[in-house]
Recover the amino acids of this structure.
């Protein structure tokens, strides 16, 4: 025992001295392309704006910016019932447990247990000695401990990689939630846009019914032809068919919303509600904030950290493996003397081994880890570029759609004026009904285009909020 104790003490002392040695490169955040300001400028009505220090940024429940109680109710159901979100949450939980698995390597492993056996040995065995017992009992209870000190930082790098991977999984969860909630908002506004189309077509059908009655009265009065009645009838039935057709797309969006909130489509319905709400203002902030506000960028950055830590894990294989072990307990051939001082046994030991030849395996694994890190750096930078593209795309969409909306409003006003003039000319017998029909078609086409632009504006605003990261930021990543 005295001869082994100095060895054990020396190994433990060496472990403490080497505890601060961590091989491999320390992680530094890769540089990423950014810009001092967004390219697009705010439209005249301020549908979005650069955030000023006094502005209130988009918060967690970003959908409340639309002031739509029905949308708020639907969004609240996502966290409770959406199965895609639940799957992502379980993936994060599994990644979090992997951190605990990695941390377990910091500590020694302990095991203990009793055993009892009765043995009969051959008397013809080579080592048999006359008079020796060939049949005996063996009762023992012993414990073992083994520990591989983290001399070179392999465990520390493994924990670092697991922690970063778990944080990446948490960012993935946030990104899934943002995607699901934005998809719900998109489907909701598309559905309400179709309700606007339905309202427009319903009113148009009523108007065309009145025009049909007008042509019939004029025909029976002898001041109009049967072809005018046929044209009016055709226009009415065509518009009725369009009115009915809107229901197909609306039903599909309603079913999609049901799936997103975890409800069977057959048991879910939404009352019609045309889209007449004003477009909200959206504070966009500055471009550099995208690196902190986008969960997909955060996930890519955390995976870059994990890949960097794996380089250290690979490099640690070049260094010796040192382990400490010990065991102790009691052993006896009789139960009565099992747990007694003379029955005690113990052992202490230490070992070290160094791999001398592996045909380049360690070098290849280290280079593989470095290549994986560089790939993750490229993925991170590409995520940043994609974020700028998506943000600029939707900023441009909102600006252009605002200009288009103003122009389209003038077109609708002109079409309404044209129809009024043509109607009066037809009633005065100056022109045929074909002129009225042409004006009706132009008016309906422009009105539906106007409604479609409004729907696209709301869709672009949702996409812009998604591109800005919703109300999320990197401070919500778990510390682990």
């Amino acid at each position: 025992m005295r001869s082994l104790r100095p060895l054990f003490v020396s190994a433990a002392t060496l472990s403490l001295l080497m505890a601060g040695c961590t091989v491999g490169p320390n992680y530094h955040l890769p540089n990423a392309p950014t810009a001092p300001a967004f390219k697009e400028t705010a439209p005249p009505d301020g549908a979005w704006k650069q955030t000023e220090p006094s502005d209130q940024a988009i918060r967690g429940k970003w959908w409340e910016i639309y002031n739509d109680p029905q949308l708020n109710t639907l969004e609240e159901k996502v966290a409770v019932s959406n199965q895609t979100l639940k799957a992502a949450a379980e993936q994060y939980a599994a990644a979090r447990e992997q951190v605990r698995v990695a941390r377990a390597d910091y500590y020694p492993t302990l095991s203990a247990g009793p055993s009892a056996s009765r043995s009969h040995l051959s008397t013809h065995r080579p080592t048999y000695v006359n008079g020796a017992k060939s049949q005996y009992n063996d009762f023992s209870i012993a414990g073992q401990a083994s520990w591989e000190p983290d001399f070179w930082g392999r465990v520390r790098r493994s924990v670092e990689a697991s922690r970063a991977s778990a944080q990446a999984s948490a960012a993935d969860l946030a990104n899934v939630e943002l995607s699901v909630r934005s998809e719900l908002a998109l489907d909701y506004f598309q559905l309400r846009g179709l309700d606007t189309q339905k309202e427009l077509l319903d009113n148009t059908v009523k108007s065309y019914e009145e025009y049909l009655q007008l042509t019939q009265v004029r025909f029976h009065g002898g001041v109009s032809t049967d072809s005018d009645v046929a044209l009016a009838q055709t226009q009415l039935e065509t518009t009725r068919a369009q009115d009915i057709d809107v229901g197909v797309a609306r039903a599909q969006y309603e079913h999609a919303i049901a799936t997103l909130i975890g409800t069977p489509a057959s048991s879910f319905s939404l009352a019609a509600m045309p889209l007449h709400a004003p477009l909200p203002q959206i504070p966009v902030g500055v471009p550099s904030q995208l690196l902190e506000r986008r969960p997909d960028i955060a996930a890519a950055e955390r995976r870059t950290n994990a890949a960097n830590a794996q380089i250290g894990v690979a490099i640690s294989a070049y260094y010796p493996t040192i382990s400490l072990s010990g065991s102790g307990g009691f052993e006896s051939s009789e139960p009565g003397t099992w747990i007694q001082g003379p029955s005690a046994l113990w052992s202490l030991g230490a070992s070290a081994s160094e791999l001398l030849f592996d045909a380049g395996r360690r070098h290849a694994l280290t280079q593989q880890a470095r290549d994986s890190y560089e790939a993750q750096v490229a993925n991170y930078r590409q995520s940043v570029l994609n974020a700028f593209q998506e943000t600029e795309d939707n900023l441009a969409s909102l600006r252009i759609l605002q200009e288009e909306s103003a122009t389209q409003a003038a077109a609708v006003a002109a079409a309404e004026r044209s129809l009024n003039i043509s109607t009066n000319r037809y009633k005065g017998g100056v022109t045929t009904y074909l002129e009225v029909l042409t004006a009706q078609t132009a008016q309906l086409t422009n009105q539906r285009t106007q409604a479609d632009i409004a729907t696209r504006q709301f869709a672009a605003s949702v996409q812009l909020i998604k591109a800005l990261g919703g109300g999320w930021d990197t401070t919500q990543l778990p510390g682990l």
In short: The first strand starts at residue 48 and ends at 49. The chain has two domains: 1-19+109-124+133-149+321-353, 31-106+151-319+361-476. Residues 24 and 312 are 4 Å apart (CA to CA).
